[in-house]
């Protein structure tokens, strides 16, 4: 018998933005059941902060990729299931393993496609070719509708990383890699790694730690960002 999900492990709000986004793009279908359909190269974030328009980037039979409207990295996308009944990690069971695998596949397909299709003269070409990507979920998301973050590991480059929670939600164990979630569901039949709510919130509030070298000598975010630019362990290219 599956225990009831921990109180506080559900999305922090009921705001419908992502659910509405899936509905707005739901008519876009791929030609083949297993194929990924590429729609747009990831748009360079040239809009003023807070005005980035969500754009469909790619789709499959089960999933959609859109750009994050409040990107915390140079490239920051969301993978969403077409099934709007899957509202959070707490809705997943072994029947959703194929969905999780498809979310991972469409992300990898899109990254590979973009690396081949972003021209050498583009301002983002080196981003795609030199910077590693992370894929995973916030343990306690802010919005309903299951969504996987796919992003370059250059949080120090984003002007939208303004406070502790913005950084720590991706740079600590509050961020659950897709492979860890898949393994958890396969082993236990549902997601367990998002249930220790108190510890997860401690990760959000913990002191700043460089995600590359582990240094924690930072009381303020600007100092951390400056450190990451010079960190010899950094693997995300310039700047």
TrEMBL record:
GO terms for cellular component: nucleus. Residues 172-231 form the Aprataxin C2HE/C2H2/C2HC zinc finger domain. One of its GO terms (biological process) is single strand break repair. One of its GO terms (molecular function) is double-stranded RNA binding. Signal peptide: none annotated. Pfam families: DcpS_C (PF11969), zf-C2HE (PF16278). SUPFAM superfamilies: HIT-like. This is mRNA-decapping enzyme DcpS, putative.
